[in-house]
What we know:
Layout: H1 16-47, H2 63-91, E1 99-106, E2 109-113, E3 119-121, E4 123-127, E5 131-138, E6 143-147, E7 152-156, E8 162-167, E9 172-178, E10 190-196, H3 198-207, H4 214-224, E11 249-251, E12 257-259, H5 262-270, H6 293-305, H7 316-319
Parallel strand pairs: 1-5, 4-10
Antiparallel strand pairs: 1-2, 2-3, 5-8, 6-7, 6-9, 9-10, 11-12
Helix pairs in contact: 1-2, 4-6
Amino acid sequence: MWQNIPLWPERASTFSNNVDLLYIFLIVVTGFFTLVVFALVGIFAVKYRQRTGHKATQIEGSYALEATWTLIPFGLFMIMFVWGAAVYMKEVQPPPNAMEVFVVAKQWMWKLEHPEGVREINALHVPLGRDVRLTMISQDVIHSFYVPAFRIKQDVLPGRYTTLWFHAIKTGHFHLFCAEYCGTLHSGMIGEIVVMEPNEYQAWLAGNASEGTMATSGEKTFQELGCATCHRSDTQGRGPNLAGVYGKPVLLDNGTTVIADANYLRESILNPGAKVVSGFRPIMPTFNGIVNEEQLLSLLSYMKSLSQPQPSEPTAKETLPPVHTGRTQAAPSAGNTKVQ
């Protein structure tokens, strides 16, 4: 009978045990002190009730007692804080070699795309035993990517990328929910994570091969929009050279430095005047309303590929141009991502 009354969802990721242990600890501590408080209230109510012939007496304070009921809760709260912070920090720091998947949430579906170009709706196929990083954004309102069996949940926001990662330890189909009320059909915004054996996943990936990868799709969009006219690999470009810029620090014209991550590059495409690279003029037009979220993700994937060594190139250090330090030479960093 008890098998049909599960106390918590199936454990299917490396986070599951840590999250469950912390949750059980919180329940045990709060439950214990709840019982203690109610028991003492009952005992004191009976023992010190008003009775005929008994006069109330003044009870003086006790520093030892006050220190006890201060230090013990403080110690318990610090254990909860440090333990919870450790679990949180592990969940928000994806491993550098994690397999990347891009997610676009919209009312009321999940649209997912693999770097190989394979697209899915309300389903995500991943290999067993592999770190998987999700780069997510919303097309309309706030959503929340929630997989109970993995013990992961992350808000998906419009206008900004958020990340989430997991490492599945069990094959099977696991529920995917939106945990943020997002409109009338919020309850129908469901899907599944399909964890497969690595060889089965490769067969699935090959059987769903698309016309090209996200990087090649982004390169096509890059050329169609005329971005290559200004973002050239030589020193004649009116915009920064994008080779090797992804994830690197970029010097702006106001003297500050930012990291060229996905959010910065997205802002540079949609609002190019917000952060202009040092040495370049703010002449890039906005592409807000011209490219959709899927195209933006493809463009970012293409820019990221420019920072990776190509098969014909020995290393990135041997092929990338030097860091820009002047005011007139094109820099190998993106800021005002000039596209005309």
